[in-house]
Structure prediction request, 71 residues.
Amino acid sequence: RVLFRSYKKEQYGNQIRIGQKFPSIVFGEENLFEIIERTLKFFETHGKKKERFSSTLERIGWENFKQEITK
Prediction:
């Protein structure tokens, strides 16, 4: 049984933000890839041109992100 932990964070650039665990534990590789795909789709849908992911999360809201990813 393989478990993964997923963190959303940004470490490059002039503003460093602390990552948040989301979800707390991911069971299996397929579920991990599904979360990654949903995260990329979220950024594709909501991100502005040249905007960093953390700025999109800040603008849209962490709770909105979690709701969309866990649909």
